[in-house]
Design goal:
By secondary structure, the protein is α/β, with parallel strands linked by helices. It folds into 2 domains: 1-30; 34-304, NADP-dependent oxidoreductase domain (TIM Barrel, Alpha-Beta Barrel), CATH 3.20.20.100. Helix content is 43%, strand content 14%. It is built from 13 helices and 10 strands. It has helices at 5-17, 23-28, 61-74, 89-100, 117-131, 147-159, 176-185, 206-213, 227-232, 240-243, 249-258, 273-281, 290-300; strands at residues 33-35, 42-44, 47-49, 79-81, 107-112, 136-141, 163-169, 190-194, 216-220, 265-266. The longest helix has 15 residues, at 117-131. The chain starts with a helix and ends in a 5-residue tail after the last helix. NADP nicotinamide-adenine-dinucleotide phosphate binds at residues 49-52, 81, 142-143, 169-171, 192, 220-226, 229, 250, 267-272, 275, 278-279.
């Protein structure tokens, strides 16, 4: 259903007043967006990680994966993140995007994980073949492997229009010294890091640095690979969840990530349509302010001990 002009005015008034929208209106509201500092491009504030899209040719999982992609796309999701390092994920999601004819409607990010220049080139050409499309919105050096070498190729392919943005990824705090040095040395459009209610160390240096330098941020592991769901167990949502329009724990965890001033875009991994729907809904409505963020931290910390 479309948002009428009257509803759009109501939505703006509700956000300005801080009271929020009624549930039916909220469900129809457009997804909140983030502006990528280096390109000015605006994309929805939520992505989807495809690490687990691995299946044999005749596996029944393929239909489940296809339904998840279809739901994500229908609900307004754009950003999908994969890697040649995730089993046959690039093959699987390339086929799904071709089948659903949504390759060009999505914002596709992949990675390269090779030390050697020629190996990196072969790896990235293979990603193009498997995922299709004239260009990738984002190519990332995976886990800082061969970073200087791969970035040289990636910068020249960006100039040729094969990549719209380039960046680097890690999910290990131990790589943050190296990451910070790379953020100083290279002009990066994106960094991808682990940041969640359960692992906030990126907020000490990497996120403020990204903010200062105008580098967009993707956050992998927004659920700590499921650890946050285990921590809260069957607990009901706290009262403050209503103040941020969160109707599930997933939305609470995602909204915490989104509300950091560096504007991180979480890329929760899911292969289930109902989880994709839940996660996309986190990109609507209000986000916690600094006081509520602190309260959320006080809430989760004892549960993670
Ligand atoms: N170094 C790197 O570059 C790096 C490292 C790690 C991850 N990544 C990227 O980040 C993405 C996310 O990482 P991840 O998948 O490992 O961890 P994650 O997003 O923290 O957690 C994924 C887990 O949460 C579950 N889940 C998802 N949505 C849910 C919902 N709404 N309610 C309940 N459970 C939900 C998933 O199960 P279901 O599948 O059953 O939904 C899965 O078990 C990866 O897919 C990948 O693209 C990059």
């Amino acid at each position: 259903m479309k948002f009428t002009r009257r509803e759009a005015i109501k939505a703006t008034a509700a956000l300005v007043s801080g009271l929020g929208l009624s549930k039916p209106l909220l469900a129809q509201a457009p997804l909140n967006r983030v502006t990528i500092p280096s390109s000015g491009q605006q994309i929805p504030r939520i992505g989807m990680g495809c690490r687990n899209y691995r299946a044999e040719a005749n596996s029944p999982d393929l239909a489940v994966f296809r339904d998840t992609f279809a739901a994500y796309h229908r609900l307004g999701g754009k950003l999908v993140d994969t890697s040649p390092n995730y089993g046959n994920s690039e093959t699987v999601i390339g086929n799904i995007m071709r089948e659903l004819k949504i390759r060009d409607a999505l914002w596709v990010a992949s990675k390269v994980d090779r030390e050697d220049r020629e190996d990196g080139i072969a790896r990235m050409e293979r990603s193009f073949k498997l995922l299709g499309g004239e260009y990738f919105e984002l190519m990332q050096v995976h886990n800082l492997i061969g970073t200087d070498t791969q970035l040289e190729t990636m910068k020249s392919w960006k100039e040729q229009g094969r990549f719209r943005h380039i960046g680097v990824t890690t999910s290990s705090d131990r790589q943050y010294d190296q990451l910070a040095a790379l953020m100083e040395k290279h002009t990066l459009d994106f960094v991808q890091i682990d940041y969640s209610m359960g692992n906030r160390s990126a907020a000490e240096r990497i996120l403020p640095m990204a903010q200062d330098k105008g580098i967009a941020v993707l956050t992998n592991l927004p659920f700590g690979r499921g650890r946050l769901f285990n921590a809260v167990g069957e607990r009901p949502l706290p009262d403050w969840a209503t103040d941020i329009d969160a109707t599930s724990w997933a939305q609470v965890f995602l909204k915490y990530v989104m509300s950091h001033p560096a504007n991180p875009i979480p890329i929760p991994g899911t292969t289930k349509a109902h989880h994709a729907e839940d996660n996309v809904a986190a990109a609507r409505g209000r986000l916690p302010d600094a006081n509520l963020r602190a309260e959320m931290e006080r809430f989760i910390d004892p549960l993670l001990l």
